[in-house]
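stuck on whats below:

***
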Amino acid sequence: MSAVLAKPHKDEQIVSVDPATGKELGSIDVSTPDEVREAVSRSRQVFHKWKTTSFKTRRRLVMNAREVILDEMDDIAHLISAESGKPFGEAIAMEIAPVLDLMQWVARGAEKMLRPRRVGIGLYRLLGRSSKIVYRPLGVVGIIPAWNYPFSIPLGEAVMALMAGNTVVLKPSELTPLVGLRIGDIFEKAGFPEAAVQIVSGGGETGASLVEAAPDKIMFTGSVATGKKIAAAAAKDLTSVVLELGGKDPMIVFEDANLDLAAGAAVWGAFCNAGQSCSSIERLYVHESVAETLTRKIVEKTRGLRQGRGDREDISVGPMSSERQLKIVEEHVAAFREAGAKIEIGGRRADTTVRTDAESADPDKFGPTPSLFYEPTVITGATNEMRPMQEETFGPTLPIATFKTEEEAIRLANESEFGLTASVWTRDYAKGKRVAEQIDAGSVCINEVLYTHGIGQTPWGGFKNSGRGRTHGLEGLMELVQPQHIHINRIAILPDAWWMPYTPTAVETFRGLATKFASGSVLKTAALLPQLLKRIRELMRKYKG
């Protein structure tokens, strides 16, 4: 058994609920603080053996895990859909397919990426010296993911940690605990060593216990407020953290863009996963000359979306994750209205019946009709002065603002405390690149939106309050190791000129090192050789004496 669930605390449980129906999916025992500490301790014991496994063994086990997922893909997708509310198709397209790609990439490429690397050390090489960097695993990686992508985010981070030689303790979101257990089951079926991956279940207190147990790295995905708390708690033990926090991602559409494509991208980028993505389009800035045309196309495409239970394959927009999240959306839409913006479509809870016939026939068993569906909402007349243009909404809303010049578009896009992703839409690729390089965001796409988290080969992370550190890509892999510098002197037969005792000859030699050797010039350094030899002879006489 490889994925270990911490021993149950019988007095407390978390209940998993389908947000589309309100139906209970199951209950999970909450891990106590003692049990979390024990899990980290077990993980640290296993690490000492796991870190010595070959990349070949790690690669085989990760590829085994891929096969488990492929064999159980539809079942896993239905679980993701039921617990998170997202459509079944999105569970495959935006969770399973991307993490399968990441798994094969890191499994096949980690050994090469973490290969020891020789370092150029300038003129020191003429003294018979050489240096190299080797990459050593950290130890125990604690993963605390969000509920919006409960499969792809923690599974991808766990696989990268394992390929780097670490062990993992994962605390799934309390809204998606069954998906977390399924991840543990996948590693178990793949044949990973017992306790190489462990699952601890619970809410915020369990996450706090994991941080307090002092793993060697924390990978957190969630809100800015919680990220700050985790960083503060981790600082007590100098535990390093990677924080993937909020977003308020802008989409800039210039007058020369393909407006049909831009409209389709805006609808998908704003409303997929019911807008509950860190990289959702939350601000659309369009050149004033094409704003009316683009808005009309967006509204038409939005009107054609079907909303309902995610287990149906013709559904594009599912429910919100929770009443709390839905109320934030309602508050922001109300604030837009009060500020003078116009609701072009949507703007209310959806009157969606999501029951099966059997459920409708027995209302006492299934409780009151749930109402966690919010209509995809397009808003015009938005400006950056409106409060909802500054706060993360995390729901199916698309506010549209206009701009006159390229400089204004860049300024508007950068007027945010967040900087996760952004997109620029234009047929002029030189302009697109010029604008992209001036936007304060960790990832900027030209004529693409949102999906780059699904490209595991590229780094993921943001500027400003969108986070610290990176996941995915080479940069993400480097977050999971510590570089060790090894330096070698291959002609260790003479004393170094800078050794003690110091003398006037030594000081003169040091002046030469500063003015000639440190210039990096071979010719200038050659002029230093007589003084260098004089100093070495002086040291040799003293050592012999």
